[in-house]
Amino acid sequence: MACEHKFYDYLHLKALYFEPKTLIIGTFNPEWPIDNHAEWFYGRTGNNYFWDVLPRMFNTEGLRHAGPVEWKNFCHQQKVVITDLIASIEDADEHNPHHLEVIGEFMDAEFANVFNEFERTGIIGLLQQHPTISAVYFTRQEGVELFDVEINEVIAYCHQNDIYFSHLLTPSKNARFQMRGWEPQDPNMARTLPNFIYEKWCDNWNQNINQ
Length: 211
Prior knowledge:
alpha/beta; Uracil-DNA Glycosylase, subunit E; 3-stranded antiparallel β-sheet; 7 strands; G/U mismatch-specific uracil-DNA glycosylase
């Protein structure tokens, strides 16, 4: 039995009631295991700072301690949409302990090593359906072929259609491995992981899109 994305119904942006300007792409949020308590995209807030950092890119307060209602309202107000590259792992077996272990660790590189059949969301199709999108961000760096091949196609499409594209530092706690030697540009800013991610995002964010 395939392992679908936990928020499969949102991936294809079918229920939008606004014209989006910014698209943020992640990788995969599995419906397994049962202790995946995320209530929406990037919702495992115990070790993910996405909802702390993203609102700050729009000069508003962080929403890490809020919930899906507030997150969705923010996206509506700022014309942001969120999706992931993978809609389903087709050859995953919920009765296979190894599969359950790999999926439960939420490690992108391991998905590519263990599984071979994936249903893709189809990012270029989403961009074609929503031509108001003028900025696209991918919340991981290069290095996993499973994602890199498709993202390179998305980058090429964006360049051909005058859409801003950038990779963003992962908003997960794994970003801490890149903090060594970092000092905030603002001397009044605390040396914390959310602030580190925020500064790195600022380096790659198109502020003109926020206007």
